[in-house]
Amino acid sequence: MAISPKIKEKMEKGSFIRKMFEEGDKLKAKHGQENVFDFSLGNPNLDPPEKVNQTLIEILNQPVPALHGYMSNAGYPETRRAVADFLSREHDLSFSEQDVIMTCGAAGALNAVLKALIEPGEEVIVLAPYFVEYLFYTDNVQGVPVVVPTGPDFSLDLKAIEQALTPKTKAVLINSPNNPTGKVYDQKSLRQLGDLLDRIVRKQGEVIYLLGDEPYRKIVLFLY
Ligand SMILES: Cc1ncc(COP(=O)(O)O)c(C=O)c1O
Fold it and tell me: How far apart are CA 85 and CA 79, in angstroms?
């Protein structure tokens, strides 16, 4: 099949997590669902509360015209407003629907954000250990991932980040709670990172975006 050599190479080097998931499926078929414990992907081991299913059924039963039709690219305004209100309450800051864009998952969001920001050859700092797909997302927009180590307890290594910054740095991508380490960056180190970027931006004159990928933040709120 005439698929592009680049994609062929990517498939060969593809995510090990995905390969483990496929392997898990095979093992389940062989040994039974209940005998295989699959920790490969981020699937929770709990189903949503019944109320969630009921609400979805109620929504589907409402005779809304063109329920499955196209919408404006950023998402339904009322949904964006509801998310903005929620974020305003949660962060004690003021967000409006203009600050919110609905996407299909975190991968969709990160790809859209990187596409909006990165010119070919610009650098995106990624902190190791990192979610493996960050390299693919950066490559999708012809950006250059610059992998920077974290401390022995996986905390932010501000010196290493500072050393990795170049005039080509366009974004620093952080993930907290972190996949795979579980590390949650504390307020102090996040402020220090913000201050560092502010200082460099003032010196260089070029904006560096701090991108936060937080798909697991609710787990932390739930625990504390
Ligand atoms: C840290 C991190 N970012 C992004 C994603 C992608 O999330 P989604 O499935 O919502 O696209 C994942 C999924 O495992 C993840 O762990």
Answer: 10
